Every structure is written in C-alpha cells, then in structure tokens.
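Person: Please comment on this record:
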Amino acid sequence: MKRLIGASRRFVGSDTGSFTLESSLVYPTIAVMIVSIVFMSLFVYGRAGLYHTAATVAERSAFTWDNSGKDWVTGDVTPSRNDGLYWRTGSDGLGGLFSFGSAGGVSKVGLPIADAEASSGTEAGPEGKLAKAAHELPDSLEGELTYRHGLIDREVTARLGQDGLLPFLAKRWTSSRMEAEVRSVVTEPVELIRNVDFVRTFVVRVKDLIAKPKAEQQLPAAAEPPRKLAFAKAEEAATYIRGVTGGVKKRVSTPSNRDRMLDALDSDGLMHEVKLGYTAKSKDVEAQIAKDLELLQNGTEVKGVVWHFFRKEKDGKIGPSKPLRQALEKRGIIVVIHS
C-alpha cells in the first residue's frame, strides 16, 4: 500500500510526458478555434459584401430611375434617349394603384434573371428598369428586386441571398444562408424644384383670379326678387303697362262712332286694357267689350286686345269673375292676371 501511494506521488510530481499530453489536447483545441474564427470572419465578410451589393443595386436603381437611358454606374445621360414627358403617369406603375386585382403599384423581378424574362419587359417600364439592374448582379445571387409606387413615395427594394462558406460540421448547428435587404427612395430634385416653382407661380395667380371681389365681378348680379304688383289706383297700373309695353294712352272712335279710351296702344297695334281689383261682368264692362270687338274687327288701328288685371292694394283682390273671363276668352280677348 505504501508503495502504491509513493508511486502515485512520484507520477503526479513528475513532468515526464507533459508535452505529449499538451500536444494531444491543447493544440487541437487551439486549431479548431483558429479555424472557427477564420470561417466566421469569412462569413461576416461575405454577409457585409452581400449587404454592400444590395445597397449598391438599390441606390443606383433609384438614382437612375427618372431616365432609363442613364448609365447604371456613372449616371451619364444620352440626350436622344428619354422616357417621354408623361412617363410618371403612364409607364411608372401608377395605374396599378387603381386597377382591380393588381399588385397595388408593385413591380418585381426575380433573381437570377433569365434572358427571356429580360427581353420580354419594356426598358422604360418598372420591370425593364429592374431587369437592367439585375443584369449587373452575378448569377450566384438569389432573391428579387422590387419597385413600389405609393402615389406619394416611391422606393426600390433589393432582397438578396446566397449560401455562405462554413465548415461541413458547422452546418449541423447553424444555417449558412446569408440574406440582405436594402430599400432606397426614388428622389427627383429637378422635378421637385419644378413643382415647387409651379405652385409658387400659378397658385397665386389662380388664387387672385378666384378672389371674392373679382369673382363677384365675373358673376352676374343677383336678380331682385319679384315684387307683387299691387296698385292703389287704376291709372297707376295703366302707367305701369305703358312703361312695359311702350304703348301710349289714346282715345279712338269705333266704326259705330262710339268713343273708347285705350289705356295703352303699342307699336304692334295691341290694345291693352287695365282693370284693378276684382272685376265682375257688368253693363259697363260689356259695353267696353263690344267697343273692343268693333275696333278688332275693323283692324285699322287695333290688331289685338289684351285685358290686364292687377291686385288692389286696399283689399288685395284681383282678377275677373268667372262669367267675365268666359266672355272675354269667347270673343278672342287675351286675359292676363298679374298676381
């Protein structure tokens, strides 16, 4: 027993074989750590490069969006190449916002892009501009390029992905997939300046044109509400009729040599008789009707007869009695009631 204890103490206190032990345990651990750090650095570098590529394609696409003829890298413009004056409303995907069942103003191009897909799109449209940017990317990248027209804001989104480099054993515990997404807003400084200048220049002019004082000058004056025609005396009503018709008061003789006072006789030969208040069929009225018929049948001065009935201020009554109206209309005399 004492020998065993002594041998154990000598084994523990001896440094014989320590190098072999360290070489078999410590060095492999350090090597694994170094390799892991190297691969992790490569993975981080690859992910950073992927993000840089996504940022580049999104920003350059947004920068050259206002002209499909721009160089994608430098932004140089060929004077003879442009998208037309109204490309923002016609071919920029704005119509998709108001189309039933559409993608809501969103255009997409998948990666990697096929040659057939690139040739099928219109270069000036959203798909054509995205396809132009997709051709600048390597075929090893996957994902999609998206353009969204939000009526007020517009943006280009680049979603890229690829498999990173990891040791074969590391793939059991983690994914080697790397993804990056970058969005870039489409801005047009020149168009913004032009729109601001347009608003500053023309809105003020339009505002001046529709200002209240000038608008009132352009609009016709409001017509006065019609007033009720009521007179205290028959002569006042006769004066009103002469002013309206341009006629004159005149005394004439009938073919039977009876005098007839005409309240108004206009230039067309129309005779106007004025009655105030409620008028019944009396002998005097019948005599006037008979004289008017003689003048009308003679046709020398009087070509037509019109009887006007006005409201009386005192009692508010107006119009002929039913028998009188029937008698007038039966003889071809026009009845006008000024209510």
In short: Residues 271 and 291 are 12 Å apart (CA to CA).
